Amino acid sequence: MEVYLPLLAQGLAIGVLTGILYVLVALGLTLIYGILHIVNFAHGEIYMLGAMAVLYLHVVAGLPLVPTLAVIVVLALLLGLAIERGIFRVLRGQWLQLVVASVGISLVIQSIGWIAFGIQEKSVPSYLPGIVDLFGIRLPRERLLAAGVAVVLVAALYWLVYRTRVGLAMRAIEEDEETARMLGVNANRVASLSVALGFVLAAVAGAFVAPVYSLNPGMGLEPILMSFLIIIVGGLGSITGTVLAGLLVGVIQSVGAILFGSEAAYGLVFVVMIAVLVARPAGLLGRV
Amino acid sequence: MSAVLEIRGITKQFGGLTALAGVDVTVGEGELVGLVGPNGAGKSTLFNIIAGAIPPTGGQVLLEGRNVTRLASHDLARHGIARTFQQVTLFGELTARDNVLQGLHRHAPSRVLAGLVGTPGYRAEQRELETRAERLLDLLGIGTHRGEVVSEQPLGIQKLVTVAVALATEPTVLLLDEPGAGLSHEESTRMMDLVSTVIRRRCTIVLVEHNMRIVSRYCDRAVVLHFGRKIYDGEPGGLTADRRVVDAYLGVAELA
Amino acid sequence: MKTAALVLLLLALVALPPLAEPYMLHVAIVVLMNAVYAEALYVIMRMGYLSFGHAGYIAVGAYTSALLATKLGVSVWLGFLAGGTAAALLAWLLGMVTLKLRGIYFSLSVFAFAEVVNAVFRAFDFFGGPAGIAGVPRPMFFGARLNTHLGFYYVVLGAAVISLGFLYRLAATRFGFTLLALRTRDTEGLAESVGIDAARYKTLAFVVSCFFCGLMGAIHGHYLRFVSPFVFTFFFSTDLVIFNMVGGLGSFWGPLAGAVLLTALGEQLFAAGYYKSLVYAVVLLVVILALPGGLIQLPRLREAWAARRLRWAKQPVVTTER
Questions:
Q1: Which domain holds residue C77?
Q2: C198 lies in a domain?
C-alpha cells in the first residue's frame, strides 16, 4: 500500500490533466449542442484541422506559434459561419437531415484530409518540452500548458454565457425561443455565433492537443466519441456537467490503468458511464 | 345508470409536489362530464392516469367494474378508453383517412402472411377498414378532407381528425382534452355540437374545459378540481353559486 | 405497366449474366447486396430510427456462417440461414434495451454495439483476430462448388429477389402501415393510445431488419471467401445511411435507387477508398440541401422546394430531436 500511494497520486494527477484535455475537446460540442441542439458530427474533423494547421503553418512553414493560432481562430470562425449559414440554417427543424448532413460534412473533411495529408503519421514537436516535478509527481509541461489553456477557455465560456448580453441571448433562445424573439433577440445571429464559437473551440483544442498525441486525418474520431460520451454523461447543455464528466473520465481512465491495466480501464470508463446514465438518465447535471 | 368509469382515491405525487390528492369521481354510462379547474389543478394529470400514460401514486381506476389502474396505454385502448391530447397530436405525414385508419388498429386483424401475399380476403378487409375510416370522417363533417395530409390542415380540421382517430377505437369512455382550445367561436360550437349529439350517442364522455359557458351548456355534470382536490361535483348550473368554486377561480371573467 | 417493367428487369437479370465479364458480375453482386442492406435498414429508418451500426449485425451474420462452415463444416446454405438467425436473435435481445431510446441516443447505442462487435472479433483468436477468417467456402450446388462469379451471382440474385420482395410487400401490409405510426416520440404516444403496442412493433421491425442484414452478410462473407473486422466498419454503416438518404425515405424505391446508383458509381471510383467516401459525402450533402426527399422526389422537386420554404418560415432555431 505504501508503494501504491505515490503511484496513485501520479495517476490521479495525470488523470485530472487528461480529464481537462477531454473537457477542452468537448467544449465546442457542448456549446453547439447546448444552445442549438444540433449534433455536430464534424466536431472531430475541425479538431483534426486545428492540429493539421499547426503542423503545416507552424512546423512546416515556420510561422511562429501566436500568429498560427490567430490564423486558426479566424479560419475556424469563417468555416463555422459558412457551415451554419449554408447547411445548418437550411435544414432547421429537420432533425434527421441535420444529423446526417453533419456526418456528411465530417466525411467530406476527413476524406479530403486523407487525400491531402496522406497516410503517414506525423507529429508536432512540443511547445513546452520538459517535465515539472511537483512533490514527486511528474507532470509534462506540454499537458500543463494544454490544461492551462483549457481552464482559461472554460472560464471564458462561463463568462460569455453567464455574464454577457450575448450569453444571455443564447440562454434565452435555448430556453424559450419564441419569447426571446419577441423580446428582440436576433435568433439567426445567436445561431451563427454559437456555431462559429463551437468551431473555434474545437480547432483551438486540436492545436493545443496536437503535440500530445500523434496526427493523422482520422484522429478526429476518438475525440468526438469521447466528447459525446462526456457531454451526455455530464448532462446535455450544462458546461459544469461537461467539466465534471470530463474530469471523471480522465481520472477513472488514469487511475484505472494503474490498478487494472489500460484496456480494462477503458472498459471501466464505459461501465461507470452506463451506471451514471442508468441512475440519472438526464446525465449528472442535465435538465429535462 | 351503472357506473362505467370509477376513479377511487387517486393520488399523484411528483417528487415533493402533490398533483392529485385523493380524487373520487364516478361517471355513469352515457354521461357527458365536464372536468374543470384552474391551470395546474391536475386535470391533465388525471387524464394521463386514466389513460395509462402515467401511473398513480395511489388509488384505483375501474372501467366497467374492472381494475385497470396499472394497465399500459395500449391495453387500456383495447379495453375501451380513448383520448385526445391537449396539444394536437396526429400522424403528421399521413392523410386524414390514414390517421383514422391507424385508429382502427384494434379492429384490424394483423394477418401478416395474408398481407404479404395480398390475398383477396385481405384486400377486401382493407377496403372495408378504409370505408369505415371515411365514414367516421363523414360523421364529423370533414369527409372531404380525407385525402389531405393532416400537417397541412388548419387547426379546426386537425382537432376534428384527432377526435375521429379516438372514436375509431370504438371506446366505452372517451377523454377529450380541451377540444375547443385554440378554435374560433364557430369552430368550438361546431365541435361541442358534435360532441353532445353524434359522439355522446356512441360513448361516455369526460372532457376537460376551461370555458364555463360550454360546460354549463353541454355537460350533464361538472367536476371541479383545485390543487389536486375535488371541490365540486354536481350540476353545472350550480357552479357560479358555489363559493368554493368562485374562490378557486378568484373572479375570472368566464364565470360570469 | 410497372409489373411489366419489373418482369422485364428480372428476365434481364437472369438471362444476361452469362454474356457478361466477371468484373461486371462482381459489380452486379455488390449492387444486389447493397440493395438488400439498404432496404433492410429502411425498415427501421421509416420508423424514425437512425442506425449507424447496422454493419455490426451484418458482421454477426457473416462471422456466424463463416465459423460454421470453416470450423464445423456445416452446409453453406444452412450457414446463410444461421447468419440471419444469429443477427435476428441479437437484435431481439439488444432491441429490448436500445429501442427504448430515441433520436441520437439510439443512434449512438447501435453504433456502440457495432464497435463492440468489431472489437470482439479483433480481440479473440477464435474469430481470427485482426486477420479474420480465410478460406470461407462457396456453397455446393448439385455436387459442384459455386466458385465462379457467374454461379454465385445467381445465389445472390435469388436471395436478393426473395429479400427485396418480402421487404417490399412488408411495407404494404398493415404491419408496415403501423410502423409509420411510430416515427416520433409524440406519434408513439398517440399510437399507444389507439391500442398499438409500440415496443412489440419496434422490436419486430428491428428483428426483421437485422435478419436480412445477417442473411446477406453471410452471403457476403462466402462471396469474399473471407471475413474480417475491417470489412463491416462504421463507414459501411454510414454508406447504408447515405443510400437511404440519397434515394429518399418516402417510399420503398428510394433506398433501392440510392443503393443501386451509388454502388455503381462507387465501383467506378475504385482508385482509393477515400475518393469514394468523398464523392458519397458530397452527393449526400447536395441531395440533402437541394433535393429534399431524395432522388425519388425528383419529379415533384418544385413542390418539394415550395413545401420546404413554407415549413422553413415556421422553423425554430433550436431543433428539438423527434
A1: 21-234
A2: yes
- Note the pLDDT tens digit of each residue in A115-168: 888 777 778 777 777 788 777 778 888 888 888 999 999 999 999 989 998 889
Domain residue limits, chain A: 17-217
Quick: pLDDT tens for B62-115: 999 899 998 999 999 999 999 999 889 999 889 999 999 999 998 888 788 888
**Is C314 part of a structural domain of the chain?**
no
Report ipTM for this prediction.
0.89
| pTM reported for the whole predicted model | 0.89
- Residue B108 confidence (pLDDT): 85
| Cβ atoms of A243 and A231 closer than 8 Å | no
* Contact call for C196 and B103, based on CB within 8 A: no
C-alpha cell at C4: 411489366
Strands (E), A58-140: 131-134, 137-140
pLDDT tens for each residue of A84-103: 999 999 898 888 999 999 99
Q: How far is CA B30 from the centre of its chain?
A: 14
Grid cell of B154 as nine digits: 388548419
Q: C305 vs chain B: nearest CA distance in angstroms?
A: 15
Mean pLDDT of C68-86: 93
Burial class (CB in 10 A: 0-12, 13-18, 19+), C73: exposed
| Residues A247-256 pLDDT 10s | 988 888 888 8
Torsion of CA C8, C11, C13, C15, to 10 degrees: -140
Count how many domains chain C has: 1
Please give the single-letter amino acid code of residue C8.
Answer: L
- Which residue in the block uniquely carries the three cell numbers 389513460? B51
In a domain, C264, yes or no: no
Instruction: Quickly tell me which residue has 498560427 as its cell.
Output: A68
Grid coordinates belonging to C42: 429502411
Which H or E element spans position B24? strand B17-28
Contacts of C124 in chain A (CB under 8 A): none
**CA neighbor of C196 nearest in space, from B101, B177, B47:** B101
Is residue C125 within 8 angstroms of chain B, CB to CB? no
Would residue C88 count as lying in a domain? yes
Distance from CA of C191 to the nearest CA of B (A): 8
C193 touches chain B (CB under 8 A): yes
Looking at residue B250, its pLDDT comes to: 62
Q: Does C284 touch chain A (CB under 8 A)?
A: yes
Residues A23, A15 contacting (CB under 8 angstroms): no
Question: How far is residue B28's CA from residue B26's CA, in Å, rounded to a whole number?
Answer: 6
HSE toward the beta carbon, residue A52, CA cutoff 13 A: 23
